Amino acid sequence: MNFPPKVTVKEVGPRDGLQNESALVSLDAKVKWINMLSETGVSYIEVSSFVRPEWIPQLKDASEVAKSIKRHPGVTYAALVPNQRGLERALEVDINEVCVFISASETHNLKNVNKTIADTLPIMEKVAEEARKSNKRIRGYISTVFGCPYEGETSIDQVLFICDKLLEMGVEELSIGDTIGIADPLQVENVTKSLLSHFPSDRLAMHFHDTRGTALANVLTAMNLGIAKFDSAVGGLGGCPYAKGASGNLATEDLLYMLHRMGIHTGIDTEKVREAATYIAKHVPELSSHQMKLLNS
Questions:
Q1: Cβ distance 251 to 233 under 8 Å?
Q2: Among this protein's residues, is 163 annotated catalytic?
Q3: CA angle 177, 182, 187 (to 5 degrees)
Q4: Could you tell me which SUPFAM superfamilies the record lists for this protein (predicted)?
Q5: pLDDT at site 90
Q6: Which numeric CATH code is attached to 8-296?
Q7: Per-domain residue ranges of the chain
Q8: pLDDT in tens, 4-28
Q9: DSSP letters of 258-282?
């Protein structure tokens, strides 16, 4: 095994973790939670999404959240941005990193943004261009890389095509998403090797959901191939509003437990992460009983 000595864990709970929960978490609770996360040693927090409120009502207070949190030096505060208007809102509150997003499958992209992939790419390009002018870093999410809830298997050629397009736009990092949590280690190995044959490892991060309980195994596979950046959400929160049955993200505290036991450095305080997870659990009834047992163990 050839694991990296250090891994960057990117906390996406405040955005990807809350966007699919039925409970509307209050502004005050979100701000306190993000402030707790900022104290854990994480270097990256995705705080919200600047989509239209009627699309994702759970994140309708994105501007207020970004203005209210206490920002720590060394922490990147990022947000999802779907279009030019979303970018304007993100820039108004000085988001550090702009995250654009697209699906690798046509049907999921239509469900997600009501546009074809061909129609989505020019919008992303314009957002990326304007973000660069404002000296913002740009991250690109690619959903349904390992499978689509509507179309089944996703073509690796389609994934590579989209990756190329995003990097041409100036996207600095690609988050490769297992949106519905169906990937297995062998598939992750095959997809990751294909990606690494075209792109350097430092431009790639993996975003695993844990629907079938394979997320940690998939992390191990990707790490062994040289990937050292992973998205996760405290408490295993999350899911996809447009992928029925998709459960939450890989839980940050589970990922940290494994990495730290293996002697891999993250710079993150596991106990503080557990405290943040326990806090938000009080505001999100859907947090699984399994994850609550782990938090309380």
A1: yes
A2: no
A3: 80
A4: Aldolase
A5: 98
A6: 3.20.20.70
A7: 8-296
A8: 999 999 999 999 999 888 878 999 9
A9: HHHHTT-B----HHHHHHHHHHHHT
